[in-house]
Amino acid sequence: MKTCYAYIRVSTDEQKNKGYSPDNQIRQVRDYTELHEYRIKKIFDDSGRSGRSTEHRYELQSLLSAVDSNPVDAVIIYKIDRFARNVGDFDRIYKNFKTKGIKLISVTEGDLTEGNSLIPNIFASVAQWESEANSLRTKDALAQKFEEGWQPTPPPIGYRTVGGEREKKTCEPDTYTAPIIKELFKMYSTGNYSILALQDWLSQKNIVSKNGTGLGHSVICNILNNPFYYGLIRWHGESKIGKHKPIIDKSLYETCQYILAKHRSFLIRKRVHDYLLRGFIFCHYCGQRYTAEPHPNHSVNKPGVIHYYHCPKRERNGCPSKYIEADTLEKQIEEEFKKLQFSEEFIEAVIRKAKEIIAQNRREKSSVMRGIINQKNALENKRNTLEDALLDGTIDRETFKRRHNALQQQLINLDNQITEFDNQGKIDIDLIEEVLAFTRDIYQTYIEAPDYLKRHYLRFFFEKVIVKDKKIYKVIPTPIFKILKNRHEIIIRKNWLPRVDSNHEPTA
After folding, report:
1. Which residues of 8-25 are buried (b: 16+ CB within 10 A; e: fewer)?
2. Exposed/middle/buried for 500, CB within 10 Å: 0-12, 13-18, 19+?
3. What is the pTM for the complete model shown?
4. Distance CA 411, CA 372 (A)
């Protein structure tokens, strides 16, 4: 019996609706080979691949390699435009087959290697023209979609595609992944999480790549850098606010951009000694950021280690700055907080906002829980189907174990998330309680806070703290602090202002 390879391809849902589906192509190819007494050695399926070039159609490349290593009598295709929509590619492959004595047969168009190549090349030319016309129509449709306020490209993680066909599709936040992406932005905005820590956190939430591995470092950075999440769409150098529902607000996005830009200063890194003021303190003389390190204490009465902040250019390049003990400088920072208090109007506004946040978190929690439960039900159905397949003998034991273990781990992750969200209410209240305490008594709340929370308070108020001769010489406020001060939302006691000496220079 004569042997053959078969090749099929379908690239869009529209083509499936026209009868070009993989199943239909395979069925017609099999009918043809049975009628003409060919035995199919292998079917190469490039479903979902673009037809304009052969370069990225991997199954076609495999077919061409197979023709060289294991020749057959014929290659059976469904239709020329399924095989090649570029005249140059078609002509090259066509001549290669003819040289090897391999027939190229189209189910719908007959034996293409009989006679000369004029007719097949005409078919291929028409296919190329159709491809180029479709491409132009697609570009026009995508441009129109952008004009109407929708992102032409597929939405990022956190959204799902809804409605319409092809260029008519829109998107909406996914009930399961959208709250997780929002939480991702919130976590990163604290400056308290590295990208590596967020990778592990997302994996625990079952937010993984298509092959089941954790999202890569660059993928998470792209998420944090994507303005689509606050509503901005972009297309060919243009941008505008789209019609899709944002997952986050612009201020949260901009905070994350600030953290990304300032990560060397603000991110808490895992060190043997993690100093509270690292990244905030600068030298008055040379402008260098202070570093900190331990030094052995040779005192007989106080053996051990003393921790110091100092300018890394101390006694070099003419910098006369001095070492200052960590405890001494951190006490001076506490005194700066003692000078601050919020206005009553601001405190009342915070209370109102806290109530809004509690109500919003309750709504979001309900939505997330529904998404988790829906996903859990879907995984349980997959597990049941897998177990039935094992009982029916339609799946081997090794494959069953591998898939079953993966499903079980995903279910365990979801159960952990349910427990986590059950405890989320208490965590939210604890956080709000901390914020309210901070607005009512800034100093007391700061000195009682753990170091990681103290860094948040420092970041809220102080862009830089300038040190001269072991004392705080000048404090550079953050933009938000300046705004609150100008609006009289923060009351600053008189001793906040630096004294001025006879040379009109501020002193500590």
Report:
1. bbbbbeebeeeebbbeeb
2. exposed
3. 0.43
4. 10
Angle at CA of residue 468, ends 467 and 474, nearest 5°: 55
Please tell me the class of the 159-266 domain: alpha beta
Instruction: Identify the sign of the CA torsion 324, 326, 330, 331.
Output: negative
As a whole number, mean pLDDT of residues 218-228 equals 91
Domain 2-138 coded CATH 3.40.50.1390: yes
Judged by average pLDDT, the poorest of 342-351, 425-434, 483-492 is 425-434
pLDDT tens-digit readout, 117-142: 555 656 556 555 555 556 666 677 77
Using alpha carbons only, how large is the chain's radius of gyration in Å?
33
Q: Which two tokens stand for residue 490?
A: 């923060």
| Alpha carbons within 13 A on the beta-carbon side of 245 | 14
* Interval 341-366: pLDDT, tens: 888 888 888 777 777 777 777 777 77
Token look-up 């000078």 returns 339
Determine the 3-state secondary structure of 252 from DSSP.
helix
Residue in 440, 456, 423 with CA at minimum distance from that of residue 354: 440
CA proximity to 142, closest of 181, 106, 169, 179: 169
For 101-168, give the secondary structure using H, E and C: CCEEEECCCEECCCCCCHHHHHHHHHHHHHHHHHHHHHHHHHHHHHHCCCCCCCCCCCEEEECCCHHH
DSSP state of 20: I
Q: Bridge partners of 241?
A: 232
Query: How far is the C-alpha of 144 from the C-alpha of 148, rounded, in Å?
Result: 6
d(CA 332, CA 13): 67
- List CB contacts of 492: < 8 A, sequence separation 6 or more: 339, 340, 485
> What is the C-alpha separation between 256 and 225, in angstroms, rounded?
8
Q: Are 76 and 104 in contact (CB under 8 A)?
A: no
Strand 304-310, strand 324-325: pairing: antiparallel
